[in-house]
Amino acid sequence: MATGAGLFVDAMLELGIHDIFTLVGDHLNEVLSAAGRRGIRITDMRHESGVTHAADAFGRIHRKPCISLVTGGPGHTNSLTGIATAFQAASPMIAVSGAPSSALAGRQVFQVIDQVGMAAPVCKWAGEPASAAQIPFYLGRAYQEAVSGRMGPTHLTIPVNLFEAEGPNPLPMQPARRAPALAPSADEVEQALELLRGAERPVVIAGSGVWWGGAEKELNAFLRKSSLPFYSVTMARGVVREDWKYHFGYADGALNKAVHTAFKEVDVVLVLGKRIDYRLALGGPRLFSPGVKFIQVDIHPQELGQARRVESGICADVKSTLAAMTASIGKEAWKPRKAWSKRLGELREAWRTELGAVAASNRDGRIHPAAFFSELAQVLPANTLYAWDGGDFIHWGRATLPANIPGGWLRLGPLGTIGSALPNSIALQQAFPDQPVVMITGDGSLGFYIAELDTLVRYGLPVVIIVGNDAGWGLERELQGELCGSTVACELRATRYDLVMKGFGGEGENITKLSEVGPAVQRAFAARKPYLLNVNVRGARSPFTDWQIAGKAKK
Known about the structure:
Layout: H1 4-14, E1 19-22, H2 29-37, E2 41-44, H3 48-62, E3 66-70, H4 74-88, E4 93-99, H5 115-119, E5 125-127, H6 135-147, E6 153-159, H7 160-164, H8 186-197, E7 202-206, H9 208-212, H10 216-226, E8 230-232, E9 247-250, H11 258-265, E10 268-272, E11 293-298, E12 312-315, H12 318-329, H13 338-360, H14 369-379, E13 385-388, H15 392-400, E14 409-410, H16 421-431, E15 437-442, H17 443-446, H18 452-458, E16 464-469, H19 474-483, H20 497-504, E17 507-511, H21 517-527, E18 531-536, H22 543-553
Parallel strand pairs: 1-2, 1-3, 3-4, 4-6, 5-6, 7-8, 7-10, 8-9, 10-11, 11-12, 13-14, 13-15, 15-16, 16-18, 17-18
Helix pairs in contact: 1-2, 1-6, 3-4, 3-16, 8-12, 10-12, 11-13, 13-14, 14-15, 14-21, 19-22
């Protein structure tokens, strides 16, 4: 007769889940042993929050749930930041925490806390089976909740005695299935297309819903049939190549100064799978003119018109909606709006020229981030996948480098969990073992999960880590200096993180001159092992920070 641990692993495999991210502990020994015997790929890490970040990233990449497995008590509380990050990013993950024996409930037992109650506010659903026989049912329920509607994390607490006990007559598990496609009505499609046909200066903005819905093909077909100008943000980065003639870059006003003017001139916006949130200035006057008309497509009905009035709100999945729109346009493609596209192209080129001028005028002395990313762009492999962290150094890179590979532009998500790029890069390299992966971070962000360098080395994952080292919390230093007139708690040591990486068993180099960048990057990728480049940069206020300061100054 199978134990609860065996039932858990059987249920995992039936659901098509073959990976576990974990950190070992007493509550997990039985289930990890069972998973190991069944050939599950187990990635053991150094911090429970890193475990959940990696599982979140794996779910984003594969567009289906991955399992994080941590111990109870502090293991569970450590995992909550990763769960909350996945929740804000609408990322499917099943976060499982062990726990002390439920047979001792109600007594003063070691490491007992209300784990389900703690997890519930930051996940879609949370539960705890009462017996080993219930484990498959609960795991199936967790899976279905994670993938239904707008996706997101779910949580299970499973006490250690349930993993150890036999589970006679287990409850049936719901099979793995995605919710059926939610297609728009013909009237909704025609209303949206009528607004777009009649517009003089329309744009399309695509967000993560395009990626989650697997709508890459449909989006490209619609854009080529309609010739509408296009911007991308979040997980939609890379879904349409940035060298397409009507792709005008990042939709994020904090990183693309061109949209400050462009979006003010827009008369109709089609927003696909993207909340009209802070990235789009809530659709308000900071980015858009008062008379602009919005068409919003979202699978989550509460999002439609939540931030601002929309002229057309379509509660449907993006894939079905784009397919219906393309079919409704018919065989004859729309004529491109040449004057409008030319205007957007000029704004884009002006912003690129401004970035290039900053790089060109700062080639001497301590390395300027803009100059560094200008050099980096020349030597990165064409199929590079990115794990981006947060901070001023990173934002220069996000504003500079193009996104051309679907699913290859991993960001922190709306919670802004700095440091998570390192565990994210672990998942990214495991998902794409034959492609180059670069993690771009600052010295402050690296410190959160620095022990995961050990994980990279133990698993032989050839991630190239670029650390912009300005010996401080650069973004906060800029904000405090501008808004407060002085700085507090913003300085760090100029640590040699390349030597830290070598201490963990990887390779690294220290870069102090711009001329060293290209050769060092080429050596790093050629090494095919974990490699850290410690780039000594000057503190330089990024476009992102300029945007933040401007916003705060208006309040």
